[in-house]
Structure formats: C-alpha cells, structure tokens
Design goal:
The protein has 132 residues and is mostly helical. It is 70% helix and 5% strand. The chain contains three helices and two strands. Helix 1 (2-32) packs antiparallel against helix 2.
Length: 132
C-alpha cells in the first residue's frame, strides 16, 4: 500500500509540473496574441483577440488543474503526520476553499472559451516534387 501511495504522489507531482508548463504556454499566447504551434489543433482562434481569450481560458483551466493537484497532494502528505483536530479542520477548510476556487476557475474558463471564434487550421501547401 505504501508503494501505491508513493506512485500516486509521484504521478501527482508530474501532473503539477505538466500543468505548470501548460500554464506557461497559455500565458505566452495570452500575452502576445500569437499561437504556439501544436500539430494536433484542428481549429485555431480566428483573431489575435480570440487567441488572447483562448489563452486566458487555458490559463484558468491549468490553474484549476494545478489547484486540484496541490490539494490532493497536500492531503496525501497529511496522512504521514499525527492527527491534530485544529490541523484537520484547517486542512478541510482550505481544501474546500481550494476546490471552490478550482470550480470557479473551470467555470470561468468554460464561459470564456464559449466566446472565442474558431476557424479551420490552414493546411500546409504541398510543393510538387521536381521531375526526374
């Protein structure tokens, strides 16, 4: 059981780092109004203002995911300490506030994403090969 707990802690720590990297990319899009090139995007925002709105929605999504990761991580780390009623109540209160903030972050991101206009991604123009 202890090994499973350690694996879950490691996976949550990796997820938090990935979420932080996603937040950095989204902040770049929000700040500059330019897209980071991803191969898997089918649709891209239509204007620089839409790119900024989409970037802000991505930042809020990543912030919510990071909050959930940190709350669960701290809850798992709390198991290793002795139980103290004041500590338990404070962790519960902070955890509930964190989950509420995470929900509001996700909800706001969903609302912002609904305002973004998307267009189909332009396919690369293929150049015909030279005759042999």
């Amino acid at each position: 059981m202890e090994q499973l707990r350690q694996v879950i802690l490691a996976l949550l720590a990796v997820a938090a780092v990935i979420s932080l990297a996603g937040m950095a990319g989204a902040l770049y899009e929000f700040r500059t109004g330019r897209l980071i090139r991803y191969l898997f995007r089918r649709k891209v925002p239509a204007t620089p203002e839409d790119i900024r709105k989409n970037g802000l929605a991505l930042v809020l999504n990543e912030l919510g995911a990071l909050l959930v990761d940190l709350i669960v991580l701290s809850g798992l780390l709390l198991e290793g300490t002795r139980f103290n009623p004041v500590l338990g109540v404070s962790y519960f209160t902070v955890g509930a506030a964190g989950f509420a903030a995470s929900f509001l972050s996700f909800f706001t991101a969903l609302h912002l994403r609904g305002e973004v206009r998307f267009r189909e991604r332009q396919k690369a123009v293929s150049v015909p090969s030279a005759p042999a």
